[in-house]
Sequence to fold (208 residues):
Amino acid sequence: MIILIGSQKGGCGKSTLAVNICAELARLGKDVCLVDGDRQGTSSRFIQDRSESDYPIIHCVSMYDNIHQNLKDLNNRYEIIVVDVAGRDSRELRTGMLTANILLTPFRPSQPDLDTLPHLVDVITQARDMNPDLKCKAVLTLAPSNPQINEANEAKEYLSEFPELELCRSVIRDRKAYRDSISEGAGVVEWKDSKAKAEIQLLVQELI
Fold:
């Protein structure tokens, strides 16, 4: 299975999501490989930090430009591939969608993030011409942890206008645990914040 994490905008917690999904998959005993397709290298640095710990192993490779064939090859070697690509309309995003099983799009409950959705839907439509089985899901990230702030619900309502994207039940809140754990090479499922752990575990259940 190939899970491609991509969006049209940076700053939505894409790499944080990728490494935390991998950490949960590794905790479940899955043979997982993290593909860093973003030249900023955030995911690769996380794996370097993790390699110095006793946490379950997550394999990692970096690849750029046309990643379609390389992903197909990796899919024959690992149980689950999680791909982190740059937050823009990149070559890695488009070629990755040709072979992915799932496109997971994180987005913040902000107007600049929501404004990118129409273009993303156009890219999805083109990808499905070549990969008609591609499933596309969206997950709300960096949502306010205060339940009295209504931004998350407003964003969900807007997303309902795009049937091409299935909204995940899990909502990833803006929690300090995500920042603290990643600096230690750990996922929040290996950390001490039970609420953050539950968010990632629910998301992974929805994906696999």
The two ends are 9 Å apart (CA to CA). Strands lie at 2-7, 32-37, 59-62, 80-87, 102-107, 135-143, 166-173. The longest helix spans residues 14-27. The CA atoms of residues 122 and 153 lie 24 Å apart.
